[in-house]
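Action item from last week, closing it out:
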Amino acid sequence: MKRMMKKILRPLLWAIACFLCFLPALFLASPAGYFPLLVFLFLSLISGLYLLALNKSLSWEEGGETAFCRRGDQQSFGLRLHNKGPLVFPSLRVTLCLSDLFGGVDSTLDTEMALTPFEQREVNMDVRFTHIGEYTVSVRRMRIGDLMGIFSKEGGGGAEHVVQVLPHVWKLAGFPLSHEVNDENPMARQSSDRDGMDYIGVREYEQGDPIKSIHWKLSAHASAYMTKQMVTIGMTGLGIILDLFSSREDPEVRMDLYDGLVEGACALCSYAISNHLDHELYFFDKSRMRRSRTFQKQEELDRMVLDMPKIVSDKHDYPVEQLLHRSCVDLYGKNNVALVTSEVTTETIELLTRIHLRGRYPSLLLVLPKGLTELQEAEALAPLRSLDAYRIPWFAYADPKMLEGGKLG
């Protein structure tokens, strides 16, 4: 509405000026009374033609290769304007636009100036990126004014600056790991009821054993129920599961959660790299395919973000329980399993408990929305109290900065 009013205001002022110039003709009974109106119309024509000539004299350069920076860093992006002709630009207004992660406008910068003949000038936009992801900086609008300020011509478009904002990698001081890893024991044998695993013997049936694990032939000879003993091989190291599902609908909250989730996973990967731990990161990529990544250098963490989807609002599109279940029953899974999530359900708690009861070492990193009241935070953390009974370590944070120098567990 405001922009429409500005468009109507200029023609209205021009019409009022014409009427005022016509007033002498109403009161003077001679052709001289039309002189002010004719002069005004002539100047308007000259000003309009001047504007057309200015439009052909202006060029600008922008764009370039994709820029990379860390979340929270500030970048400066320039636009070079060039007046290629001998005319003066009395009014030139440039609007630079920064897109957000959802394709909308995050912020704009308006700059108004004048250009002398053949002058070159740079317009800079300083941007501090607060969220991970891909941004674009482009010319949203460029308005050229005429000599009299009556007419203007708008244009825009052109090349864009592409900015890939990478996660900040926080340094953990410590993380709870199994004694097998700390003692550099090459592997630990953990029990599991999964079919098809290594058979090591039998034992007497105990309450809670699955019916399918009963050795029926041996039970008939022993006159008592006997249960097959199956094992998996738990490899030393750390399995990191990244859950990018969130039921939150507010875009700003979702971007904050995304930052906390990705940077929490990166902090765990960085800790594993620094301590020479075998590790894997499990997540679903943009095509909803299960991915597993191992990193040797910190630089590889940066490229990981390119495969990451944004926050997923449909639970069926990101079934993190499948990843948890696989970590629970995988034949050569990691002894230590860390879940990074912003949503904790009853099923999540049960799966973490099952992983613990099968002799592995689960832990939980919970990302909380920013700005929660004490009551809201207490409600969000209430389900985690059941993990304390099994001594399953967990850590909750709203700001990823809390990971820096922290000891989890």
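Closing note: The chain is about 30% helix and 30% strand.
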